[in-house]
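As the work plan foresaw, our protein records have gained a structure token line. A representative record is set out beneath this paragraph:
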Amino acid sequence: MARKIIGRLKEYSKSDLANIIVIKGAGRAFCAGGDVAALAQWNKNKEAHKSNDYFALEYKLDHLIASYQKPYIAYMDGITMGGGVGLSVHAPFRIATENTVFAMPETTIGFYPEVGASFFLPRMDGQMGTYLALTSEQLKGVDVFYHGIATHYLHSTSLESLSQRLAELQFKDYTPLQDRYKLIASTISEFTTGLPTPRPTIYGAQRKAIDSCFSHRSAIEILAALQDLSDSPSTPVHLKTWASKTIATIRERSPTGVAVSLRELQLGRTWSIARAFQNEYDISSHFMNHTDFMTGVYARLIERKNGRPDWKPATLEEVREEDVETFFVGHTPEAGGRLRLLESGEGADFKEYPHTWIGLPKEEEVLGMKEKGLMREEVVQHFLRERGGKVGVREKVEEVWERHET
């Protein structure tokens, strides 16, 4: 599939007839991921080079999407996990619907979040990216939009009409890419009918707990912070329940997967988009030789056993820091130890997405305006003007404001 999509995108990039590229799924999923069972079988048969080739092709495609110089829109209508995240999350336009289910479930199979997760997860607000990476927690529907994974939220019944409307748009050859983006953003807003809830499911005290507990350097310290929250007599009952459940969830995951994922996100905040994919290729190649990946895939996806897989090492306490660091040393068969990407030059590398203005304002942007002494409504109006009256701006600003005043 990746090879076919790369070919099409390359073809469209040279065509004057292709103004906008839309990618969508067929059925109840946008894309639930690749065939990791095949990867495990190749590794079992001592054919890890096939796994490396698989990741090389996938990451080249994902980087091509991230650096694509024509408008690219992903309809995240349905399950969006694993490889499906790579096909969508780096796009300038990402549309969630009531059917969207987003997750990075890799630690459940002895792996780690990749497809560019080392770039986009650390750039989420607060510690939400770390929380999603270590727990495999799902975001559904409008929550995918509120937390910045999607740039827009529409009802699924609007997508067909939106596609027809997008097909009518015409651009002059010399129209800058950012101006094309503005017209597309305005067009998508024509189909927005409002949001089903004024706040995401995770907000307020729970979001504050996530930002506090998941800011620690090690997974052991994160678990200790969660335990302190659970044990404190001043903690509300619902947060005690959440903290205890989260501890159990992390303990269920691959200890190596959790430790590597945390280190990946800590380092990834400083990586550029190109370096992120190159480094993930190294990490993924290393995982193909680790027992937890084979154990997790066979237990969860092939044999579908109940209970916790037989991870080695079995607990986070047994995971040594030096073993984690070995995942971040180049072990790839490619020349120079780096994945050779398809794109280079202008637009092929950056440390922040160049199209963040399309989605909701980042939490740090809101807090920056707050620190200037502006009133809440002034900040709301500022971002409404900046985002062209975008639906969700008021809700996002007010949630951030309330959480940092409490």
The longest helix spans residues 48-66. The chain has a mean pLDDT of 94. The radius of gyration is 21 Å.
